[in-house]
Amino acid sequence: MEFINWIRGALTSLGFLDKQAKLLLLGLDNSGKSTLLYRLITDRLGALEPTRHPNSEQFRIDNAVCTAFDLGGHQQARRLWRDYLPEVAGIIFVVDAADPERFAEAKAELWALLTVEELTNVIFLVLGNKTDHPNAVSDVELRSQLGLDNLLHGNVGFFMCSIAEKQGYGEGLRWLAQCI
Ligand SMILES: Nc1nc2c(ncn2[C@@H]2O[C@H](COP(=O)(O)OP(=O)(O)OP(=O)(O)O)[C@@H](O)[C@H]2O)c(=O)[nH]1
Ligand SMILES: [Mg+2]
What is the pLDDT of residues 115-132, one digit of tens each? Predict the structure, then answer.
């Protein structure tokens, strides 16, 4: 059995077999998490209600079969985030790049996760969303506001995107799929 698992692991890492990955979609309320999930499974832009209950969907990125949990980002929902951390391969942390008043709050939540010991080997994809919005700040500005300037860990990727205009998140997700 050990040997079979070893062969499986080797074939998966060479890209011959599908990887299975549990992902979490986290970030403040209104950042665009559910919009992203809906986009990934339907390829459409949905008019969605704020997420009140956790839900999950499966989708494929290259050879990674991902099960993503959308937990909701309002204060009460954030208390649930920690319950979902076991077995997580990647966290997609969505930030509204057009809402500077909430950058400090987003930074605090992001860093609360980045410093969890259990998550040391987890891949973080930080998406600065809503680049189509007139108030959106630049990637340099957002990276700095989130304290990601001098990040030396290879497990954190930062990409700007517009889920509405189907830009940027594809590159981010492919980077994530390669890393997990
Ligand atoms: N302009 C613009 N608006 C976006 C984009 N992505 C999402 N939105 C809008 O942002 C708002 C919030 O999106 P949701 O996906 O519901 O946000 P959420 O992160 O799931 O929020 P919670 O469920 O409350 O945690 C909606 O009005 C979306 O239409 C984008 O790329 N550009
Ligand atoms: Mg939502």
Answer: 999 999 999 999 999 999
